[in-house]
Write a structure and sequence with these properties.
Structural class: mainly beta
Shape: globular
CATH class: Alpha Beta
Radius of gyration: 14 Å
CATH superfamily: Ribonuclease Z/Hydroxyacylglutathione hydrolase-like
CATH topology: Metallo-beta-lactamase, Chain A
Bound molecules: zinc ion
Order of helices and strands: EEEEHHEHEEEEEEE
Number of helices: 3
Number of domains: 1
Helix content: 10-25%
Strand order of the largest sheet: 1-2-3-4-5-6
CATH architecture: 4-Layer Sandwich
Largest sheet: 6 strands, mixed
Distance between the termini: 37 Å
Strand content: 35-45%
């Protein structure tokens, strides 16, 4: 199998990655970008995002999701609880796909499977903790080629 030179993976910092698929889709995994102190300045601007994948609701994985989604109109794949929370923030519900562990979702031509991870998932908002469902490990197949297997960072475990 030949590698596609157009596929790229860029580590933004912490658990955040930018991925470009073989067909040019821009994917953002765990959107902590503009406010991520580990992100280099040159990567803190997101002008295009076709698909956002959110592994869990901790601030260091979801903090910039709303701003980026409003700007780019990206499709978002995450667990059900986070999808409900995102929908409550005025994002286009048609662009948010909530799943459950074991399920495979196809969005933007990319298959995403949510599998179990050992972690928590609460969303902190205005000093309160909101139930965010279970942490998910995400596998994505980009146009049939398994190029990605991500799990949340979890040095804090
Ligand atoms: Zn976490």
């Amino acid at each position: 199998m030949a590698l596609n030179a157009d596929v790229s993976f860029t580590w933004v910092g912490h658990g955040t990655w930018k991925v470009r698929s073989a067909k040019g889709k821009e994917i953002l995994i765990d959107p902590w970008v503009m406010n991520n102190p580990a992100a280099p300045e040159m990567l803190k601007t997101v002008d295009k995002c076709d698909l956002m994948l959110i592994t869990h609701g901790h601030f260091d994985h979801i903090h910039d999701a709303l701003e980026i989604a409003r700007k780019t109109k990206s499709t978002i794949v995450c667990n059900h609880e986070i999808s409900v929370w995102l929908g409550s923030k005025g994002l286009d519900g048609e662009k948010i796909v909530g799943g459950n562990q074991g399920g495979t979702i196809e969005a933007e031509g990319i298959k995403v499977t949510l599998v179990h991870a050992e972690h928590s998932c609460g969303i902190t908002e205005d000093g309160h903790l909101i139930y965010g469902g279970e942490d998910d490990r995400i596998q994505a197949w980009v146009h049939g080629v398994d190029v990605l297997q991500m799990r949340p960072d979890h040095l804090e475990r």
